[in-house]
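go over this chain:
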Amino acid sequence: MNREEKWKVVYVASRQEKKVFERLQKQDIMCFLPLAKRLRQWSDRKKWVEFPLFSGYLFVKPSLFQRDKVLVDHGVVAFVKYNGGDAIVQDKEINTIKTIIESGYSLETINKPDDFEVGNQVMVNEGPLKGSIVDIIRRNSEEQFLVSFDTLGQSIKVELPYHVFKK
């Protein structure tokens, strides 16, 4: 393995994570799709189903020559960017995710934007408002919400990213 190869993250089309994973593996491109099992209820039965732990994302470790092959796959939208380049995920983070999955613990990701609705009351987990209970007033963008909280007899409105909330 070339020492220059790093774990990267690609956005994939909706509900295409498993298919893209299989196609890239067939091309000998190292990739990782963390899956979590969830019990799903249908009208006539219950069944354990595997879902991507990070919906819409796939980890890849392409060589320099394989990078373009990843982008050519019709299910891949783009590489996730950070500071003008491909976002890099450390090996220890990938290994931590693998260890947790292999442990058999029940897993689920938390704080997806769709988990929160206008009118919800949530607690802020990070930043200067940590510990505050706020009301979601509206969704300003894909990941930003306008919230309000009361202090000194006044209501203050603030835009916050969804990941700082706890239901």
Remarks:
- The chain has two domains: 7-103, 113-166.
